[in-house]
Amino acid sequence: MTGPSSSLHALVTVLSAPSFVQSEPDGQVRAGGPQGWFTRDRRALSLFELAIQGADAVPVGRRHDDPAVAAFHAVIRESGAQWRDSTLRVRRDRQLFPAKLVEQLDITNHGAGQREFTVVLRLATDFAGVDDVKADRSVALVSPTVTDDLVRWQDRRGSVTVQTHPAGSVDVHDGVAQVRWMVVLGAGETWRLDVTAEPQMAPVGEFEPLPAGNPPLFRLKSASRAASINLADLRALLLADPLAPEDSYLAAGSPWYLTLFGRDTIWAARLLLPLGIDLAAGTLRTLARRQGTRDDPASEQQPGKIPHEVRAEGIDNGQVRLASLYYGTIDATPLWVCLLHEAWRAGLPAEQVRALLPNLVAAMAWITGPAADPDGDGMVEYVSSGTGGLTHQGWKDSHDAFMHKDGRHPLAPLALCEVQGYAYAAALAGAELASAFDLDGGPQWIEWADRLKKRFHEAFWVADEVGRYPAIALDADKNPVEGATSNMAHLLGTGLLDTDQASLIAARLAEPDLTTPFGLRTLSSSSKNYNPFSYHRGSIWPHDTAIAMIGLINEGHPGPATRLANGIIAATTHFGGHTPELYAVLDDFEKPLAYPAACMPQAWSAAATVRAALYLA
């Protein structure tokens, strides 16, 4: 799903899941757009602005080495004194905890004489949900109450309190609380203000995320600055399952996806498996606890199906309406099986695997059954429920993620090429686990996989002026959706391809219309539907590039894999060491350009950079 027009890449994000603050580069949280302090999918503060009356704060720098900590520096330029040296210096330190925001303001007088000035702190909240913010919907401010040094906002959606030390005088106008201090500062003296804000969101049931603290994950010691920064971002995205707090998983990303996502969380865990099995184990169990058990069209739940996303409340962003526990994904279930198999091969203890075998059987029943093949043609497909859920249910899930050459939207049921690869790999993985743990079903899953492979080879291969490649999808009439895309890269290493087919894909990916110096395009730049600033039709996604990198390595093509790995690192370096959700690359411009609404940090993007750094080490 795409975001609003506001440019997130220009904002500073301080993150400690499930909370984050998005502010201007000077540290100010101003009203409007996606700025604010958010916790559990709701905005706790929509305005958090500090000022010295009658003067302008001129930003001179900031430090943001830790995802949860930032320091903003400024000097004060008074009216009519723009040509004189500034004598007042301001430092604003922000530290975020999972359920608390702490700020410290220091104002130092470097002048020779005494200074007098008024400091004003402006505060407001609207308790807007992330879907309101994403849709750029205006939400009315909540009027606060004031008691001594405490300002408090409360309604049915929750409450938030702000406490200041020292206490100031407070007045409220149009929902905005203004706290004032008259400050007298001698030469060389520093005045300090401490601000503590704490939220209490309304209970949201068993799916409320809880902070994971600092579990012993990601032990990698690396000389790579990009890897180190992204490992820190990943730690900040860790959450614990409230049903079993010993199990940690990665929230998908900030700001829009700071919660459990089936596909994103699984891919992040798969990319990070070289660092250990703890994250994979927590991810597997967290998703297994929410595996579908019944048919529910409203949430698209089906028995055995792994969920797409878990929210405190349902989502309605103007484009889609999703239940708080939503299952509209075609690929999370086979990806879950693949992760279970890979974690077992990486050392997940047998007793932990055995505890998940009922979930494996249920998942394989869904993959190989009629729920995942609504027209009975032997391929894994999806049809939206028509209740406001996602139109597309693969990883490219925007409404216009892929189209026929003439611009027509393909009709469902839709069979995505990469999903056939995931499902084939899952069937073989499930069969191997069944053999190792004396489960029934393994031979039937292999037979099913063989039929899928035959159907794929018959139906998916198309050609353009460069050569043969798999189409991104088949529509309801089994017509291929043509145009070379990155999706074909996800087939590498799944076992669905023979050696010659893997070589064809490797060669096609290496063409300059797809591979750039900064990663793999989602759609060929020669396509009529190409748009480098679209969400899925020509932009570059680091996780997508990393999946291609791993597939190329597994199929014996280290040259193009190395080029993609270097591209991920180069792009990450350009964005200050942090890896955005996606970005654009133009052939006539030598640097990657920001996608305005991209999340950063994003779990699978950060994991992609770490995996690329591991490969290049």
UniProtKB/TrEMBL annotation:
Pfam families: GDE_N_bis, MGH1-like_GH. Residues 338-572 form the Mannosylglycerate hydrolase MGH1-like glycoside hydrolase domain. Residues 17-195 form the Putative glycogen debranching enzyme N-terminal domain. This is Amylo-alpha-1,6-glucosidase. It comes from Kibdelosporangium banguiense.
